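Lecture 7 notes: from sequence to structure.
We start with the chain below.
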Amino acid sequence: MPIVQSQSDIRSPLEKLFKIFRFTEADAKTLEGQSIEPHIHDFEELIIGVEGKISHFIDFDDEIVYAPFVSFVTQGKPHLLRPQLNEGKCDLWVIRFRSEFMSETIFKLYGYFHNRANITLPTNRCFGRLTSLCEMMLDEVERPHPNLSIIKQLLTSLLTMVYNEKPENPDQDSTNAHSQTYANFLRILEENFRRPVKISFYAEKLFMSERNLNLICQEVMQQSVGEIIETRKLTEAKNLLINTNKTIAEIGFELGYNEKAYFSKVFKRKTGQTPSAFKEEMKQLIS
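Predicted structure tokens for the same chain:
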């Protein structure tokens, strides 16, 4: 199954939320010589590189990354990734999921990888456990009645291990001022996104102008401050729609939208669904 499989290939009910597959030497050889164009996904993509290498163009930078590594591509970010053989080997785990599947932790994932889409990890016991978790997720997915809660717990454990690993190359732990400012913005956002505060609130907290904060967010994520704040609110809205019995009006009010109609309008504009339609779809997928 090629790693460049298009989003339109994801069809089954489970695969609308979560998908995992292995990319091998045979797949890499099949891909040799094929033309791959930069593209975007409407899902999150995590790649665990066990053997081989990848050529990855993302954030206007082209990088060759050798296994073992972890790469993360957030939905909507243009990139071009080509898996390749290294010493005749290629073994990658590809994990794709919708942000609402991991809504409680997705922004931590965004923050961790915002300035480094590819992270080289040491070959040690921890990396071996990452592959074991991938095998367990695949085993669960292939069962006649896969349990999404089990898959979610396994993926959460995998991400926790990734967070606790330090990059092999200290240069990857960027000290770029803009990168640090963006990380600080995410931290302040996490503490305040439920409040009906304006962009000026975040700019003042960071001791800068709204314009400069916007420029930094555009540079790092190709999104405005307003778009990032709105995405964080709607990610939490999805979490509440899936995991609580709160009404749509209650959820909107909790996230700073004083009118149910306006909250529903913003939700549909960003997701393509009304909150009620989204909740019904998730209920059918998870039940």
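Points to note: The first strand starts at residue 18 and ends at 23. The radius of gyration is 19 Å.
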